[in-house]
Amino acid sequence: MVKEAHHWAPLILRLALGFFCVRLGIWGYVGEATFKSTIESYTGLQGIPLTLYLILGPYLLFGAGSLLILGLFTRAAALVAIFVFAPLLIAGGAISAIENPMALFPEQRTIFKDLVVLAAFGSLLFSGPGAISIDNTLKALYRSKD
Hints:
Radius of gyration: 17 Å
Structural class: mainly alpha
Largest sheet: none
Number of strands: 0
Order of helices and strands: HHHHHHH
């Protein structure tokens, strides 16, 4: 029982992060003005980097989230999500630390939440898809042909 239980943790993590990314991707499409002002104020990005992030960010988030939910190309989807979230973490965390260096509590500095999300994506990157995934089905089909 314990031997098989480790397959369920990545599934729960994968589904939670997948729906989180899909929701953020949809928000990027639908609420483009709000998305832009949030990214701008949070990261301080302007000009070409901001435009590039606003164009690619929602598509990458929606795509990575969809793949995570399905359990298809899980490690690649986690890597894409890390590359989407890392600039936000670095830029936003730096701005947060400069604006309020004495803040100790997570509700005062959003960098803690972002670190947890980034660590969860890193966990999926190394652990793989877990139970009930297309990746595992494809791997089983490939091994049965050998």
